[in-house]
């Protein structure tokens, strides 16, 4: 298996996990919205409503985070197809394999990571 095929397989495996997580978090948000509606909770005055609002916010934040990761993985797959995967976008040097294994969607080498 070439490096490129290895990278693509790793990205696709990670993408499948993240896609599941997006779906699970969306279901969690929907479930909290449902139960808030069922309990007829008032976010402002009912302590249970405030808890539900907080839980909904947390679940929505996790869903957004998973979606962001999914977008990064899709962009990384585009780079694999274009032949630019694993190259630092700042200095153009190869990103070390160990870093790509830990962070398959990395676009920068360690030195240029933020
Ligand atoms: Zn760099």
Describe this structure in words.
The protein is built from three helices and no strands. It has one domain. The chain has helices at 3-39, 47-82, 97-102. The two termini are 32 Å apart. The protein is mainly alpha-helical. Helix 1 (3-39) packs antiparallel against helix 2 (47-82). The protein binds zinc ion (ZN). Zinc ion (ZN) binds next to loops.
Question: How is this structure best summarized?
Answer:
This protein has three helices and no strands. By secondary structure, it is mainly alpha-helical.
Mean pLDDT: 89
> Percent range for helical residues?
55-70%
Low-confidence stretches: none
Bound ligand species? zinc ion
Instruction: Write the H/E string, N to C.
Output: HHH
Q: How far apart are the termini?
A: 32 Å
Total domain modules: 1
Kindly state the number of beta strands.
Answer: 0
What is the count of helical runs? 3
Fraction of residues in β-strands? under 5%
Taken from the alpha-carbon principal axes, the silhouette is elongated
Q: What is the radius of gyration computed over CA atoms, rounded to a whole number of angstroms?
A: 19 Å
Q: Tell me about the biggest sheet? A: none
What structural class should be given to the helix and strand makeup?
mainly alpha
List the helices and strands and how they pair.
Elements: H1 3-39, H2 47-82, H3 97-102
Bound molecules: zinc ion.
Zinc ion is lined by residues 88, 90-91, 93, 108-109, 111-112.
Which key phrases capture this entry?
114 residues, mainly alpha, 69% helix, 0% strand, elongated, binds zinc ion
